Amino acid sequence: MAGQNGIDDLGGEGGRMKVAVLGSGLIGLDLLAKIERSKFLDCRMVVGRDANGRGLRKAAELGYGTTAGGVSSLGADGQAFDIIFDATNAMSHIEHHKHLESLGALVIDLTPSRMGHMIAPTVNGADASTHRNVSLISCGGQTSIPILHALTRVYSPSYIEIVTTAASLSVGRASRLNLDEYIDTTQAAIRAFTGVNDVKVMLNISPAEPPTTFRVAISMVGDDFDVDVIRKHVTTVAEEIRTFATGFDIAACSVLDGKAFVAVEVKASGDLIPHYSGNLDIINSAAIFVAEQYAAGRVA
Amino acid sequence: MNEGIPDASAPIQRVSIYDPTLRDGHHAVRHQLNADQLRHYAAAADAAGMPVVEVGHGNGLGASSLQVGRAALSDDEMLSVVREQLTHSKMGAFLLPGWGTIADLKKAISHGVDVVRVGAHCTESDTMERYLDFLRANDVEAQSVLVMSHMASPERLAEECRQMVGFGATAVGIMDSSGHYLPEDVSERVAAIAAAVDVPVIFHGHNNLGMSVANSVAAVRAGATVIDACARGFGAGAGNTQLEVVVPVLERYGWSTGVDLYGLLDAADLAERELMPQPPTIDSVGIVSGLAGVFSGFKARVYDIASQQQVDPRDIFFELGRRQAVAGQEDLIIDVALDLAKRAA
Prior knowledge:
The complex is a heterodimer of chains A (300) and B (345).
Chain A: E1 17-22, H1 26-37, E2 41-47, H2 54-61, E3 66-67, E4 83-86, H3 90-102, E5 106-109, E6 117-118, H4 121-124, E7 133-135, H5 139-151, E8 159-167, H6 173-177, H7 179-194, E9 199-206, E10 214-221, H8 227-242, E11 248-256, E12 259-266, H9 278-299
Parallel strand pairs in A: 1-2, 1-4, 2-3, 4-5, 5-7, 6-7, 8-9
Antiparallel strand pairs in A: 8-10, 10-12, 11-12
Helix pairs in contact in A: 1-9, 5-7, 5-8, 5-9
Chain B: E1 16-20, H1 21-24, H2 35-47, E2 52-55, H3 75-85, E3 90-95, H4 102-110, E4 115-121, H5 129-137, E5 141-147, H6 154-166, E6 171-175, H7 183-196, E7 201-204, H8 212-221, E8 226-228, H9 243-253, H10 261-274, H11 284-292, H12 299-309, H13 313-322, H14 331-344
Parallel strand pairs in B: 1-2, 1-8, 2-3, 3-4, 4-5, 5-6, 6-7, 7-8
Helix pairs in contact in B: 2-3, 2-10, 6-7, 7-8, 9-10, 11-13, 12-14, 13-14
């Protein structure tokens, strides 16, 4: 099987990048499933803080090495890693990023800590080869930024607004404690990727049963929007993103009263998480994409 | 617990009235109240002895947006104008985590907010922890409410409320955001919550099915001691519980509110004169949104989009109900209207 970046097998387990996953919540467990499918990544350690927690026990059941010793235990025994995924929470990442960087691995941060170099794979994925700590911003950022980046090359909106809605069951404890960080980091990233200063990000967590599919509503205020031009651009972006996150779909696209509106829905592509959890899938798929691209660069 | 009309020998039970006219009412006028309107109503409510006067964008601090509507005034302007008018009443504000942030709370505190209601959808109370912690650390009274509460069982609501108390909320309760409840629904839920917590229980009604006063009475009978109501029912959709009705009704039942009747009626008359083009009525769309269990605040946007897309606004509400749209998901209205228009074409 060809890898997700279209590169050849690196030559079995020995050639794979040695990977550690910090955090054993919803994001961490889905990452493990995606790493398992990758020809280029080999998970050597899952790091948590509670040996009896459901996440670490699950990881151990799946046959992964685990430690409940927290981040400081990583590297203590001389074990080296090429890539470390941080799926803890923003406050923890800020506390332990120095230790992670001292280990010499590429750190891919999935928390909204705003510490590392921000990456949206289809826009600036190659930057991972020149930075040691990269940030994947947020699920809403990964979903909206490629679209906004494309549209702001055609239009100059005066205002951008994003509303994400995620199903209650798909939002873990860390995310619930990081709502402000999610908002601040996503807003900062959108400003950086679009050059538009006036940006507002909001989010809903929905109690609907059956759970609602992850959705990101994008609105822009500006002049001369043409719905056909917008549709053409967002369709192209969606096709690019579907090469690594297959459940990415444009749900609506309209122009009304000088406002452009694009709604994206993301379904999770199988694995351990339910289909509505597109919020987990989009950021983890981006993380795997970046990691594999980095792996390809290292062996080239 | 109250089991009905208190008998004459029993001590008079107190019910605390919470007045969100200048917050929920914003939904009815696309968040366009100006400084004079806020000033005049706040002064009248204060004179009536209203315990709490809440002010803000309809969805609370930080929520002015395309999604829900942009407010005419900033949060800073609203809070400072109302603060100046209140001599007895406490000033309240509303915060939905995910819409407003700690930065917005800091702003409200700098304007002297006395009470902040932190809200979340009915199963999401753990999103409130940081905000309740922050308010407590800053000596601001922190209450906590579950929005769209008809979407969860009484047991689940009680469990969420217990958790909110654990986070430091000094009063907890439910909002009937869609105006969907009948009195029995309210009794069951409030009783479950009152049995689970040892802080005052809040009920916030909407009048889509004409039941909001009856629902508020049912809530008090089941143990609620904080009742939300708005002058002339000025609020989202078909309106809230009508303040100047529910207060004397509760008094007739024997509960004491401490609100002055003539002051209350004056404030309500002023509200009708100055705040609204007309008092809320239960129109067709209001009834449908109550039946469908959809947030009443969608009404203005549904009307706009229905006329643009030439579809029946009632069909939009029923379809939103089928999709279980929650408050904050105004972005679904366009999708639903486009789908309905496509099906009709």
